[in-house]
Amino acid sequence: MPNIAVIGSQDVDLYEWLDDARPLVVPTRDKEVRGTVGKLHGVEIAFIPRNGDGVPRPPHVIDYRSNIEALVSLGCRQVLTTSMAGTVRTAIPLRSLLLLDQFIDFTRNRQFSYFRDGDPFGFADMTEPFCPSLRESTLAAAEKAGVDISPYGCYVCVPGPRFETRAEVRMYGQLGADLIGHTTVTDAVMAREAGLCFVTVAGVITMGAGLGEHAMNAHEWHESRRSCAQRFRLIVDQLAHATSIGEVDSNGCGCRSAAPIER
Fold first, then answer.
1. Which end of the chain is more exposed for a tag (fewer CB within 10 A), N or C?
2. How far apart are CA 224 and CA 203, in angstroms?
3. In Å, what is the CA distance from 207 to each residue of 10, 93, 108, 178, 233?
4. With 0-12 CB in 10 A as exposed, 13-18 as middle and 19+ as buried, what is 39?
5. Rounded distance, CA 61 to CA 41, Å?
6. Span 121-128, average pLDDT
7. SS3 label, residue 3
8. Left (φ > 0), alpha (ψ -120 to 50) or beta: where does 149 sit?
9. Domains annotated on the chain, with CATH
10. Which of helix, strand or coil describes residue 71?
């Protein structure tokens, strides 16, 4: 049973970092979820690409639910994800890393809940949408890895795949958002509904519309993505090491009982 699971963005692949890495295939209700499983410091880690097969997909067609179902089936309790995001504040520069603590949801026309129609469900407490205990462990791992990361960040999730207008970026900033992206909130909601501990390390790969002189062009992202992905791997390595020596407490939070099933 993997101790840690990673749902990765493009440019995040732990295969070369894992010992005894091997393919992972997990049947779920809708499909087989494929990834990689291996070890770091003797700790078993499962890695699943968010988009399923490594092929770029628009955010509204990603099968978020099957990814979470696969992790539940594997018995994973702690889930780390990456988010390659845009900043809505000039004070947050390119290639910054932030450990998210809040979100605002503007998504639509996509999967939105772990609970399926007709199945038992619960009302999830999202006061603290990212696991406080796992956030502390992740911050400690980043410090040991020498990775500079902000301990807070509010992420606004929008439908995509289009970029935002200047007016939208201004509005999101006024609402209190720091970063903007297309995927993290859907992951976070489903993980909480499934009772998993969940955190997101967000990397800034572009400035929001109107905040810079450059055109909004995805081709400019790639170097920033690689930089953020490399530092994320260092954090995972240190978190695995801390887990191997018993420094990570996976029972000190209320994530498991945050969405009690209605009876």
1. C
2. 8
3. 19, 8, 23, 11, 23
4. middle
5. 35
6. 95
7. coil
8. beta
9. 4-249 (3.40.50.1580)
10. helix
| Collapsed DSSP state (helix, strand, coil) of residue 40 | strand
Q: Answer yes or no: are the C-beta atoms of 103 and 187 closer than 8 Å.
A: no
Cβ–Cβ under 8 Å, residues 228 and 84: yes
How much is the mean pLDDT over the chain?
91
For 88, the token pair is 């809505």
Is residue 37 very low, low, confident or very high in pLDDT (cuts 50, 70, 90)? very high
Q: How far, in Å, CA of 129 to CA of 138, rounded?
A: 15
For residue 217, pLDDT over 80 is answered with no
CA–CA distance, 246 with 201 (Å, rounded to integer): 22
Q: pTM score > 0.90 for this model? A: yes
Residue 162 CB partners (closer than 8 Å, separation 6+): none
